[in-house]
Design goal:
Blueprint: H1 5-21, E1 54-57, E2 80-81, E3 98-103, E4 112-114, E5 117-124, E6 129-136, E7 142-149, E8 164-165, E9 170-173, E10 178-182, E11 189-194, H2 195-199, E12 213-215, E13 218-221, E14 229-233, E15 239-243, E16 257-261, E17 264-271, E18 274-279, E19 285-289, E20 303-305, E21 309-314, E22 319-328, E23 331-340, E24 353-355, E25 358-362, E26 367-372, E27 377-385, E28 391-394, E29 397-401, E30 406-411, E31 419-424, E32 436-438, E33 441-445, E34 449-454
Parallel strand pairs: 2-28
Antiparallel strand pairs: 1-7, 3-34, 4-5, 5-6, 6-7, 8-9, 9-10, 10-11, 12-13, 13-14, 14-15, 16-17, 17-18, 18-19, 20-21, 21-22, 22-23, 24-25, 25-26, 26-27, 28-29, 29-30, 30-31, 32-33, 33-34
Length: about 450
Amino acid sequence: MSRLLPGFFAVLGVISLGAWLTAASPVTVARRVPDTSSGPAAGAPKAAPNLSGQLTTGPGKPAALPGDWSCFRGKAHDGIRGDGQRLARSWPAAGPPVLWSLELGEGYAGPAVWSGRIYLLDYDRDKQLDALRCLSLADGAEIWRYAYPLPVKRNHGMSRTVPAVTDKCVIAFGPKCHVTALDPVSGKLLWAKDLVQEFGSTVPPWYAGQCPLIEDGRLILATCGDDLMIALDCVTGQVVWRTSNPRGWKMTHSSVIPMTLQDKRMFVYCGSGGVAGVAADNGQLLWDTDTWKIQIATIPSPLPVGDDRMFLAGGYAAGCMMLRIKLDGEKFVPEPVFRLKDTDFGATQQTPILFEGNIYGVRPGGELACLDLDGQIRWTSGARRFGLGPFLIADGLLYAMDDNGKMTLAEASPSGFRPLAQAQLLQGHDAWGPMALVGGRLLARDFTRMVCLDVSETVK
């Protein structure tokens, strides 16, 4: 009997776990910890979903407005809007005018904007559909929606990535590492891939947070399975090159960022075991290092600083690091320039912004801070805290949102924290999704709603 008891309790544990996973109304986890059970967030589904889903059209029409915000952090991948449009330096007491608002599924997915259209990854929890929505920038009306069935269990929301769009395609990266490529105008499916099934990827805790990158007609993804990184033809989905994954790194929530370092174009990624640079032309692994890695969750992306450095910041006591890439003959050698504790500067969720020789970000604890390129703090926001909310810079102005949707408008200047306006723009919680700014219209969201605001110079 004593030999049978361990097996009995093992079976009992499996039955209990199965009952919990299949409960009809799972409870939202209060703490931000990943679900490490055998549920959907832990790895591959048993069978690949049917990615050839359904396209439906709506009454929306593209807006006749110039400009775009075509991917994560905008076209230049820097979080800065630099089209020269003048924006309001003050707001009415109630805040900038709300042009329209829209209910969304739970999550933090940010919008991409191209040719008067908004592209947004969303999740229909009632119907269990992963969906890419194309909306009108004019009024938020849906132009089309492409959706395929995919069960996703609540784990601090579902969708959390920003699509990438060109005139040839729009790419979406779903919560369970499913990639869909569609025609940006019609919504017609071009191709779809399951990275878990085809490339050996592992779905990260809290689901996929990597935003797709398009450069020169190629889609760049850090698959972190059989390969570290791959390049696919955006129109056909055919593999252009693959990068070896000699250290077996897993996918994080960070995104691949293009950089030109030491006159070499490369793609830089923060994987589970460190940070690496990959040649843009052929996918060769140029360098990697484990001097920068975060044990719990790597979320912010690397930030290019000049022609030989990058800035890395993280949460969970990681702090920040300035990393220099040296050229020793034909070999790229990474070396730390300085490192700061998280009490000085870090970034739990949002990637900092480099603007006019200074770095702006929200350090752990929620203070907005300005850091110079030698690692010296220029200022902090003090008692004004921002939590995990997003921020961007446009027309010399810093737009910073807190967790609950309160926006602060301040000067983007190293001389001090100088707020110009403040308003409660959203009424929900977890307002963490990246924002976009196009044609004087600011798009922001919380956990379940997106708003479009008029922040143009005409606002008084």
